[in-house]
Amino acid sequence: MSTDIHQGPEGTPRAIRAGVPCRACLSGEDLDWLGGRSVSLALDLVTTVETVPGPPPARDGGWSGEVWEFLRGRLAGLPADPPAVRVRSDAPGASGLSSSTALIVALFRAYTEACAPDPGIPAPILAEWAYAFEFARFNGGGMDHLAVIEGGALLLDGRTEGLPAIRERAAFPGEWSVLVVDSATRKDTSDHIKVVRAQLAAGDPDLAAYRKEADAASGEVWAAIGARDLDALAAAMDRAHVTMRDHQRMSTPVLEELRELALRSAGLRLKLSGAGGGGALVGVCRTDDRDDVVAAVRRALADPYPAARVIPTRAAPDPAF
Predict the structure, then answer these.
(1) Going along 98-237, which residue ranges are E strands?
(2) How far apart are CA 157 and CA 38, in angstroms?
(3) CA neighbours within 13 Å on the CB side: how many for 145?
(4) CATH classification number, 176-313, choose in 3.40.50.280, 1.10.3720.10, 1.10.540.10, 3.30.70.890
(5) Ranges for the GHMP kinase N-terminal domain (predicted)?
(6) Is the pLDDT at 19 greater than 50, yes or no?
(7) For the residues 302-308, what does the mean pLDDT come to?
(8) Is 309 left (phi over 0), alpha (psi -120 to 50) or beta?
(9) In CATH, what class is 2-170?
(10) DSSP string for residues in 97-132
């Protein structure tokens, strides 16, 4: 996460450009609030919010106005209207890569740096505020907020209330690249958290099996990152995907065919990122092989799925390393 600050004329808000990465979930969707281990990886696909000169934007019911009202309840002295902003994102939207959380966090950062009397909200407070803002609307977990704010690879311990705990951090191997396969089908998770909470309350055996398998897969993913063992990482991510599909029905026929085409054409194992119903799949390959793998997968998808995209990226830097 980065912030560029440029001081304007006296009495005017500072010009701010806040950049926030998206994230891939390598294992453990929903465990950040069900309890259990999950693994997140910040990706160098950045959402940027830039304050720009001009009149405040019209109130359109979007995130910008809602984030501003949230901040006005916590920071004294903010005017009634937020500064105008320009937004750009490298990540595909509605894809399971936390692009919405990245936007919300970038708005929090840009607004507080531009207008708050004491700019520079500490990262832990920023994470708590962003989590509280989204929880009030979606009743979900806090993996995304920690992932995009902290950067790097995180092993998280889920909690039924509040942000998960950061159990460990790791530097993602620099010799590995991440490939995002955007299915061009929007994820559909409008009722997902409600359904899973109902499963939890009913003691659903499929959910219990999912939690056990996903937690184990997260342990394997984390061990593979630490050992720099790419084959073990691919197998562990595959295990995480299979349990998402078989126990919680998070995948779709389109996503399964994309996985099969990537495996056949390039030996690339893909895992759904996010709670599913569409969206993006992620895989990891050696950087030396990246161009060949990307070309092979693109050729395999060109005819049956011309709208699908293969996006090469890398892990976003972790400031702790």
Answers:
(1) 153-157, 165-170, 176-182
(2) 7
(3) 28
(4) 3.30.70.890
(5) 84-152
(6) yes
(7) 98
(8) beta
(9) alpha beta
(10) S-HHHHHHHHHHHHHHHHH-SS----HHHHHHHHHH
Residues 6+ away with beta carbon under 8 Å from 303 = none
Handedness of CA 309, 313, 316, 321 (dihedral sign): positive
Number of helices (H), then strands (E), belonging to the chain: the values are 10, 10
Residues contacting 55, CB < 8 A, separation 6+:
84
Instruction: Establish how many alpha carbons lie within 13 A of residue 39's alpha carbon, considering only the half-sphere containing its beta carbon.
Output: 26
| Number of other residues whose CB lies within 10 A of the CB of residue 75 | 17
Residue 41: phi and psi, rounded to 5, are -140, 120
What does the alpha-carbon distance between residue 183 and residue 69 come to, in Å, rounded to a whole number? 35
Backbone angles phi, psi at 179, to 5 degrees: -115, 130
Beta pairing partners, 41: 24, 153
Helix (H, G, I), strand (E, B) or coil at 54: coil
Cross-strand partners of 21: 46
pTM: 0.91
Length in residues, the chain: 321
Structure tokens at 288: 């030396």
DSSP class per residue in 74-105 = TSTT--SSPPPEEEEESSPTTSSS-HHHHHHH
Both tokens of 103, joined, read 């936007």
What is the per-residue pLDDT for 4? 52
- The residue extents of the domains of the chain are 2-170, 176-313
pLDDT above 80 (res 137): yes
The pLDDT of residue 37 is above 90 = yes
Give CA–CA dist 141/31, Å, rounded. Answer: 8
Q: State the Cα–Cα distance between residues 276 and 294, nearest whole angstrom.
A: 23
